[in-house]
Design goal:
This protein starts with 13 loop residues before the first helix and ends in a 6-residue tail after the last helix. It contains 13 helices and no strands. It folds into 2 domains: 14-44 and 154-208, Endonuclease Iii, domain 2; 50-148, Endonuclease III, domain 1 (Orthogonal Bundle). It is an all-alpha fold. It has helices at residues 14-27, 29-38, 50-58, 64-76, 82-87, 90-95, 100-112, 116-119, 124-132, 139-148, 161-170, 179-186, 193-208. α3 packs antiparallel against α7 (100-112), α9 (124-132) crosses α10 and α11 (161-170) packs across α13 (193-208). 60% of the residues lie in helices and 0% in strands. The longest helix has 16 residues, at 193-208.
């Protein structure tokens, strides 16, 4: 198992966000302009493991409110562990509000037997690759989990619509940048891309008056 390289810094508290935000403000004037309006940036760190990852999967392509409502139903049914999900039928999961597709994804995650403790010791690119090998986990899900549950400082989520919309507004673009374009733009924000993502989500929440991430 490869050790985490030095560049894969871990965000552990507000001081890390402040350091990253100050660095970003120095290299991008638009960040410097809005940062005072958004401080303090939300830390957003979450526990790691099966349950938080399943929660993120439920948030794919639905509103924050819908994802949280669905998660509440699973919690009430004690359906948030690998054993419980493996034991449930597809119809049983759909009865709790999961779509047929997400019921399959939940089963795939439960059967994947991911070594969640081991992910902490892998470089970020290998974490993303490991997660994306599971049916139902794409780049957005893997990047959000790596950012919030593992605390990696240099992860971005350019496929996120709220980040795309925030980038459009902040940089006064004619349209939302697509995932490929925004990923290339984000290269300039390394090694603090996770802080840049938080900044975009905070800016989206401020301008749209609604949250853009679970």
């Amino acid at each position: 198992m490869g050790a985490i390289p030095v560049t894969d810094r871990i965000i552990v508290g507000p001081a890390c966000l402040d350091e990253g935000a100050d660095w970003l403000a120095q290299i991008e004037p638009s960040f410097a302009t809005i940062l005072p309006l958004l401080s303090p940036l939300p830390l957003r760190l979450k526990p790691d493991g099966f349950s938080p990852l399943l929660h993120i999967i439920l948030g794919q392509q639905v509103s924050v409110a819908s994802a949280n409502a669905l998660w509440s139903k699973l919690q009430a049914a004690n359906m948030t562990t690998p054993l419980a999900v493996r034991s449930a039928t597809q119809d049983g999961l759909r009865g709790l509000g999961l779509s047929q597709q997400k019921a399959r994804y939940a089963h795939a995650l439960a059967e994947a037997d991911i070594n969640f403790d081991g992910l902490h010791h892998l470089p970020t690119d290998r974490v993303i690759k490991t997660l994306c090998a599971v049916k139902g986990i794409g780049m957005w899900t893997a990047e959000v989990y790596t950012m919030f549950s593992l605390g990696r400082a240099d992860v971005f989520a350019p496929g996120d619509l709220a980040i795309q919309e925030a980038a459009k507004l902040l940089f006064d673009l004619p349209e939302r940048p697509n995932e490929r374009t925004l990923r290339k733009m984000a290269d300039a924000w390394s090694p603090w891309r996770s802080v840049a993502a938080r900044l975009f989500w905070a800016y989206y929440a401020s301008t749209k008056q609604k949250d853009g991430i679970i």
